[in-house]
Amino acid sequence: MSGLVESGRSALRSALERLGRGWGRVQERRPLSTDLLESDDAYLVVFDAPGVRGEDVDVTFLDRTVEVSLERFRDFYDGYDLVFPGRGVSLSGSVDLPRDADVTPEGANATLTRNGTLHVEIPKRGGSGDVDVVEEDD
């Protein structure tokens, strides 16, 4: 009987692993959730970026479009085996600013917050370029 139980556990673990990997791929294909805000001086784009470090985030600004790509890594836990790998690893998203947005990349900044959001602020007045990412201190 114990052989049958062990076979059932093995089959269940295998099914959960396949399901988790599939769900992770679905997450990787969906764009990051975002909010676009505007003030008198700048636009602020807020991306959901859970589980990443600043060095794993790439932010580019080109032609009124803010593009973000990030790589996150799974931590390993001593004494635990991964059963359901359900979180996507490579995530991306973009936001188009309004057509009449007159913005500049000079002075743009990106801040990765402790609660897992990425804030990209772009001052108003035209241009294109890369944006540096900083991580909030603990």
TrEMBL record:
Family: Belongs to the small heat shock protein (HSP20) family.
Record-linked InterPro entries: A-crystallin/Hsp20_dom, HSP20-like_chaperone
Alphabetical list of PROSITE patterns matching this protein: SHSP (PS01031)
UniProt domain SHSP: residue ranges: 23-138
Descriptive protein name: HSP20 type chaperone
Species of provenance: Halorubrum coriense DSM 10284
